[in-house]
Amino acid sequence: MQKFLIFFLVVGSLTLSAQTPIQNFTLINVVDGSSISMESYQACVGMVIIFTSNVCPYDGYYTARIKHLVTTYQGKIQFLLINSYQESEESADKMKSVYDGWTLPVPYLADKDQVAMECLGARKSPEF
User: Fold this and answer.
1) CA atoms within 13 A on the CB side of 33
2) Cα–Cα distance between 124 and 2 in angstroms, integer?
3) Can you give the pLDDT at residue 27?
4) What does the CA dihedral 8, 27, 83, 11 come to, rounded to 10 degrees?
5) Is residue 51 within 8 Å of residue 118, measured between CB atoms?
């Protein structure tokens, strides 16, 4: 299963990079209130961006898998969680509450203007 997920991530990233360069965007990290942009990670070897939700049941199924990937590749690959949903249960305050239960050492970014979602072509969650 892990090999399949890694294959999916690699193929997805190659597909994105083959289509168009990713424009820079800046989002707020609900964990600490800091601004994070793509330019913040120019020196990293690779990046996995995961579009997720506070309430989608499918996202809950992937929490353990995401934790495993983050733990396995921590220090090698940068992981970012992005929430682009605009509903009230997806607010920045509720994102922070949900994030505290996940215990993941990665930024959780609020994309309420859906800039990152449009830039990367995300349409659902979870989407890598």
Assistant:
1) 1
2) 22
3) 94
4) -10
5) no
The residue ranges of DSSP E strands in 7-116, in sequence order, are 26-29, 35-37, 46-51, 77-83, 108-110
The pTM of this model reads: 0.80
Tell me the pLDDT band of 84, cut-offs 50, 70 and 90.
very high
- Strand-pair partners of 77: 46
Asked if residue 3 lies in contact with residue 72, where contact means CB atoms within 8 angstroms, the answer is no
Residue 121 and residue 82: Cα distance in Å, rounded? Answer: 13
**What kind and span of H or E run contains 36?**
strand 35-37
Range with the poorest average pLDDT among 18-22, 27-31, 69-73, 120-124: 18-22
Cβ-proximal residues to 91 (8 Å cutoff; 6+ apart), any chain: none
